[in-house]
Amino acid sequence: MCRNIKPLFNFDPPATDEEIHDAALQFVRKLSGTTRPSKRNEAAFERAVGSIAACARELLQSLETSQPARDREEVAAKARARTAMRFA
After folding, report:
1. What is the DSSP string of 27-45?
2. pTM over 0.90
3. Largest CA distance in the chain
4. Among candidates 30, 63, 61, 66, which has minimal Cα distance to 48?
5. In angstroms, rounded to a whole number, what is the distance separating the alpha carbons of residues 49 and 26?
6. Backbone angles phi, psi at 72, to 5 degrees
7. Over the Cα atoms of the chain, what is R_g?
8. 55 occurs within a structural domain
9. CA distances from 19 to 8, 40, 45, 73 (A)
10. Would you say residue 3 lies in a domain?
11. How does DSSP classify residue 62?
12. Over the stretch 25-45, which tens digit does the pLDDT of each residue have?
């Protein structure tokens, strides 16, 4: 599951709150071993997603780099090309 988490740092435009939340959700799903928690564990699951998203947001905002920001469309095009070669 975690292989689907994409790098979110150093992009133009920066990562959105939705992208950060989705990455946190994927991480919590991997750790918990479930994609959908039981009603009993739903609150803990959501708290974990919120906490991890907040930490990830803080991390992304505090990181620094001397490299120019990457273009999202260019990175996506390269990924699509790799996928086409892999599954051609």
Report:
1. HHHHHHT-SS--TTTHHHH
2. no
3. 46
4. 30
5. 9
6. -60, -45
7. 16
8. yes
9. 8, 27, 18, 15
10. no
11. H
12. 999 999 999 999 999 999 999
